[in-house]
């Protein structure tokens, strides 16, 4: 059974800690927000630092300027993306509430990091925000999307993000192994595991993307739009 591979998880072993210690060090503002977020019992939801480090590398390789962050939590992944973007870059950060952002002073951390003007927080159900972007004519204009929100909506987020991405853009889906839940017989999966499994199955056979499922963090599904 797959286990979460996050350096801050209670089950993290020597390998996860070694990975964390042997990557480009966290930006001090990321380190601050990470440390504050991990004081909360819900801090386990925070993205794995090695995963976000890898995604920042991808953003730089893509030359990304316009990205989506679906599921903002304490603002860690949005900050990570914003730090990787050029001065004229933009992160559209989608969530139903900014309660966690306020609790951990994310707005101030973003400002201190010099990226507050790059992060545009949209408070509404994420699918509504994505559909509004499509309706506004922004299909095919985004370089990257990171999905880490309510799991049963993953398939819908995937479809909307695929419309919004340019050819060559990448969708990154977090929790793609969902604590090993996707390994169970489908009849025994909970609703979240089933939705994620169905998305993994779909992406693997989707001619619109080149998909790769990685054992990174709690599983990372990468889909590069090819048509």
Brief write-up:
This protein is an alpha/beta fold. The protein is built from nine helices and seven strands, in the order H-H-H-E-H-E-H-H-E-H-E-H-E-H-E-E. A seven-stranded mixed sheet has the order 3-2-1-4-5-7-6, sandwiched between helices.
The CATH H-level superfamily is: Vaccinia Virus protein VP39
Biggest β-sheet description? 7 strands, mixed
Our estimate of the beta-strand percent is 15-25%
Radius of gyration from the alpha-carbon trace, in angstroms: 16 Å
Lateral arrangement of strands in the main beta sheet: 3-2-1-4-5-7-6
Shape: globular
If you consult CATH, what is the topology? Rossmann fold
For the record, the CATH class is Alpha Beta
> What are the segments in which pLDDT stays under 50 over at least 5 consecutive residues?
none
Mean residue pLDDT: 93
Structure description:
Keywords: Methyltransferase, S-adenosyl-L-methionine, Transferase. This is Putative caffeoyl-CoA O-methyltransferase 2. It is a single chain. The protein has nine helices and seven strands. With 227 residues, the protein is of the alpha/beta class. The protein has a single domain, classed as Rossmann fold (3-Layer(aba) Sandwich), CATH 3.40.50.150. The protein is globular and about 45 Å long.
Blueprint (SSEs and pairs):
Elements: H1 14-21, H2 28-37, H3 49-62, E1 66-70, H4 76-84, E2 90-95, H5 99-103, H6 106-112, E3 119-123, H7 126-135, E4 142-147, H8 154-164, E5 165-174, H9 191-204, E6 209-214, E7 220-225
Parallel strand pairs: 1-2, 1-4, 2-3, 4-5
Antiparallel strand pairs: 5-7, 6-7
Helix pairs in contact: 2-6, 3-4, 7-8
């Amino acid at each position: 059974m797959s286990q979460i591979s996050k350096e801050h998880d209670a089950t993290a072993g020597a390998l996860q800690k070694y990975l964390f210690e042997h990557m480009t060090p966290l930006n001090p503002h990321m380190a601050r927000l990470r440390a504050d977020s991990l004081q909360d019992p819900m801090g386990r939801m925070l993205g794995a630092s090695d995963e976000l480090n890898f995604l920042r590398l991808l953003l730089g390789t893509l030359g990304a300027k316009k990205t989506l962050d679906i599921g903002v939590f304490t603002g860690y992944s949005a900050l990570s993306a914003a730090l990787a973007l050029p001065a004229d870059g933009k992160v559209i950060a989608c969530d139903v509430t900014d309660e966690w952002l306020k609790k951990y002073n994310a707005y101030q951390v973003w400002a201190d990091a010099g990226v507050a003007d790059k992060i545009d927080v949209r408070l509404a159900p994420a699918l509504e925000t994505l559909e509004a972007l499509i309706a506004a004519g922004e299909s095919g204009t985004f370089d990257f999307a990171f999905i880490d929100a309510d799991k049963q909506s993953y398939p819908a987020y995937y479809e909307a993000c695929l419309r919004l991405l340019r050819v060559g853009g990448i969708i990154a889906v977090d929790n793609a192994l969902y604590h090993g839940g996707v390994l169970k017989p489908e009849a025994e999966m909970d609703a979240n595991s089933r939705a994620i499994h169905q998305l993994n199955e779909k992406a693997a056979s989707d001619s619109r993307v080149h998909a790769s499922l990685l054992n990174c963090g709690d599983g990372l599904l990468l889909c590069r739009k090819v048509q």
